[in-house]
Amino acid sequence: MGKKKTHKGVSKRFKITKSGKLLHKVSGYFHKMVKKTGKAKRQARQDKSLPAAQAKTINRMIK
Predict the structure, then answer these.
(1) Domain coordinates of the chain in residue numbers?
(2) Dihedral Cα 11, 12, 15, 20, nearest 10 deg
(3) How far is it, in rounded angstroms, from Cα 55 to Cα 22?
(4) I need a labelling partner for 15 at 20 to 30 A (CA). Which of 24, 39, 58, 61 fits?
(5) Which residues lie across from 48 on neighbouring strands?
């Protein structure tokens, strides 16, 4: 059986850390920025880690 191909859309959107966690950008960062608080904007700039259940699915697509 052949190797599985990497899902290119997923590989562009998620980053794997050394410990194996998956990081992603927060959605909706550029939408309605005027209404968002400074705290919300700062937190949205940081990468967030995925829950284990979702990470399992994404890992299959990346590897």
Answers:
(1) 8-62
(2) 0
(3) 6
(4) 39
(5) 24
Sign of CA dihedral 60, 12, 27, 42: positive
Q: Are 54 and 24 in contact (CB under 8 A)?
A: no
The pLDDT value recorded for residue 63 is: 82
d(CA 63, CA 61): 6
What integer pLDDT is reported at residue 1 of this predicted model?
79
pLDDT of residue 3: 86
Q: Any idea which fold 8-62 has?
A: Factor Xa Inhibitor (4.10.410)
3-state helix, strand, coil split of the chain in percent (to 5) is: 45, 15, 45
Q: Which residues of the chain are modeled with pLDDT < 50? A: none
